TrEMBL record:
Residues 35-60, 480-522 are annotated as: Disordered. Residues 308-447 form the Helicase C-terminal domain. It comes from Riccia fluitans. CDD domains: DEADc_DDX49 (cd17955), SF2_C_DEAD (cd18787). Residues 101-274 form the Helicase ATP-binding domain. This is RNA helicase 36. GO terms for molecular function: ATP binding; helicase activity; hydrolase activity. It comes from the Eukaryota. Residues 480-507 have a biased composition (Basic and acidic residues). The keyword Nucleotide-binding applies. SMART domains: DEXDc, HELICc. Belongs to the DEAD box helicase family. Residues 70-98 form the DEAD-box RNA helicase Q domain. The keyword Nucleotide-binding applies.
């Protein structure tokens, strides 16, 4: 962990200055801590881990809150918000809402940790709207979230909760026209919901953009565990530098990571921490199963599973590991007369929104998606999640299966496990503290459809080639590889420069057991021991 007094702060200024290294391998500190087809055949698918709160920090857990606050009125919300909650069917606040809303209303910086489907969005939207109603102006709040789809969902919730306010809410995400977004920001909406990359683009391309945010009262980092990873390091640094230092900062996450633990440990006692976090756990109302199968007939098992579902499954999400797999599966199911929508990053933003809208509206019962749909999306009709590909990280499994069994409802998650996935599943089971149950299948029955599925897959593969999709996949892979290499080179240059300065400023020679190598330009390379560790 590094401490850097000059880095932009995560929380507002005024308390102890400290920064947290968001990724140890990156050696960059950026966060200061402070206070504040419908099937066209016969069937159809209807449509506690150990606490890391620092000593003295204000914090509460579910058990401490359960008997204290039972209604939204108890939380200190205004009458108009109470009526809005009632109209929207929000009868009783969830634990995270009970814990965080009063603290936000009292001006505290808040860090909220709670399971998926626990009502975290309303936990920050309701108090922001109440404060906005007392002093309405724009831009009042900036909400940063890692995915475009989640940004639009948060905007929908703000608009619903703020319907009595004539709320002006703008979404700023990639894949949309920047000029139109800039004009919308110039009109000073009350709330801006953005992805970090596009928000940074606006700040960098328009020197006046920072002025529009100079009086913002709230900065919200939703899915903070993802936002504070090294992948968003540069973007978050820019945003934190622009936002006013006297803001109120709210961080919400469903999973704990090393970066968030470090943020806990460095925070002052003026920030409020809410914890309902019990590790990477899944809710008790979620039934979790697996099907063990040979990799070469995974598609056959998937189609058999879909055809065997009863009418109680209103809609489902199938998660795939890549855009190519996602697109291929959608074409295979099209050949099998199943209506689906596909959601992945190689679609345009308008296509992504259209796919999600059709799925939410019940026009298609199956959504095939990559992990862009794994975080935050709240669609009550999702009764089943299928992991076509097992996620490489247990945290991603938790987020995927969290798309069902939300807000106390039941749900099911079925993972298709091949001979190559066994270790991954064991790691997931270890992480969530629960064994997956076997979903019973009869192999002879499953394999009756092998000829039909293989034929559909061949046709789908030809369609992908004819449409140029395979070429797009190849081009993107090459671009990503170039960008990755550039990022690694930039990191290496930074390390070399730092090491060189250290050596030039030292009267002692480097230790002989830490040999330094020179490149063709005479610059120091990394220590061999570091290289082995990084590899």
């Amino acid at each position: 962990m590094e401490v850097d007094e000059g880095a932009p702060s995560i929380f507002s200024s005024g308390a102890k200055g400290a920064t947290v290294a968001l990724n140890a391998s990156a050696n960059v500190a950026i966060g200061g801590v402070n206070q504040k087809k419908k099937k066209k055949r016969e069937k159809s698918l209807k449509g506690p881990a150990k606490s890391v709160v620092p000593a003295g920090a204000a914090s509460e857990s579910d058990g401490e809150l359960e008997e204290k606050l039972r209604t939204f009125e108890d939380l200190g919300l205004s009458t108009w918000l109470l009526l809005t909650c009632k109209e929207l069917g929000m009868v009783r606040p969830t634990p995270v809402q009970q814990g965080c809303i009063p603290q936000i209303l009292n001006g505290k910086d808040v860090f909220g940790m709670a399971q998926t489907g626990s009502g975290k969005t309303a936990a920050f939207a309701l108090p922001i709207l109440q404060k906005l109603a007392e002093n309405p102006y724009g831009i009042y709040a900036l909400v940063i979230t890692p995915t475009r789809e989640l940004a639009f969902q948060i905007a929908d919730q703000f608009n619903a909760l703020g319907s009595s306010l004539s709320l002006r809410c703008t979404v700023v995400v990639g894949g949309m026209e920047m000029t139109a977004q800039a004009l919308a920001l110039m009109n000073r909406p009350h709330v801006v919901i953005a992805t970090p990359g596009r928000m940074k683009d606006h700040f960098v391309s328009d020197g006046d953009m920072a002025r529009y945010f100079s009086k913002a009262k709230f900065l919200v980092l939703d899915e903070a565990d993802r936002l504070l990873e090294v992948g968003f390091e540069e973007e978050m640094r820019t945003i934190l530098q622009i936002m006013p230092s006297n803001r109120q900062t709210l961080l919400f996450s469903a999973t704990m990571t090393g970066n968030l633990k470090a943020l806990h440990e460095l925070s002052s006692d003026k920030a409020f921490f809410y914890e309902a976090y019990q590790g990477f756990k899944t809710v008790e109302t979620l039934k979790q199963e697996y099907i063990f199968l040979p990799a070469n007939v995974k598609d056959v098992y998937l189609l058999h599973l879909l055809n065997s579902l009863d009418d109680s499954v209103r809609s489902l999400i199938i998660f795939a590991a890549s855009c190519r797999t996602c697109h291929l599966l959608s074409l295979v199911m099209e050949e099998m007369d199943l209506d689906t929508a596909a959601l992945h990053s190689m679609k345009t933003q308008q296509q992504r929104l259209a796919s999600l809208s059709r799925f939410k509206a019940g026009q298609v019962p199956i959504l095939i998606a990559t992990d862009v749909a794994s975080r935050g999306l709240d669609i009550p009709t999702v009764d089943l999640v299928i992991n076509y590909d097992i996620p490489r990280v247990a945290r991603d499994y938790v987020h995927r299966v969290g798309r069902t069994a939300r807000a106390g409802r039941g749900g099911c998650a079925i993972s298709l496990v091949t001979q190559y996935d066994v270790e991954l599943v064991h790691e997931i089971e270890k992480t969530i503290g629960k064994k997956l149950e076997e979903h019973k299948t009869v192999e002879d029955e499953v394999l009756k459809g092998i000829t039909e599925v293989y034929k559909a897959k061949r046709v789908a593969a030809l369609k992908m080639m004819d449409s140029g999709f395979e070429d797009k996949v190849k081009a993107r892979r090459e671009l990503n590889q170039r960008n990755k290499m550039k990022h690694e080179f930039d990191r290496e240059d930074s390390k070399v420069d730092t090491r060189k300065r250290e050596l030039e400023g030292s009267d002692t020679k480097p230790s002989t057991n830490k040999k330094l190598e020179l490149d063709d330009n005479g610059r120091y390379l990394r220590e061999k021991s570091e290289f082995r560790e990084d590899r």
